Amino acid sequence: MYLSKEYKEGIFAEFAGNAQNTGSTEGQVALFTKRIAHLTEHLKKNRKDFSTQLALQKLVGKRRALLSYLYKKDIERYRAIIKALELRDIIK
């Protein structure tokens, strides 16, 4: 499976500081970004998979909410995670 324990630990170690810090905003955003990329590839092959499409939309909303929180809390951390994940700046 693409979200194995080791895979998640690697993501959290890279973006959250250590593998045990699974609640950090940066780690959650990074994990959501990887999941969004995976679901997007799945939907390119399976256009009529509407349950996956709904799950993708919810995941994008969660990521956006976390990024909005991070923008309000600490703009430097927000800019760092946007740059590291190569995301667009969605908060205006």
Roughly how many Å apart are the termini? Answer: 36 Å
Strand content: under 5%
The total of beta strands comes to 0
* Assembly status: single chain
Given as residue ranges, the uncertain stretches (5+ residues, pLDDT < 50) are none
Largest β-sheet summary? none
**Share of helix, binned:** over 70%
| Structural classification | mainly alpha
Radius of gyration over C-alpha positions, nearest whole angstrom: 14 Å
Write the element-wise H/E pattern from the N-terminal end onward: HHHH
Q: What does the average pLDDT come to?
A: 92
Overall shape: globular
Tally the helices.
4
Describe this structure in words.
This protein is mainly α. It is built from four helices and no strands. Helix 2 runs antiparallel to helix 3, helix 2 runs parallel beside helix 4 and helix 3 runs antiparallel to helix 4. The longest helix has 24 residues, at 50-73.
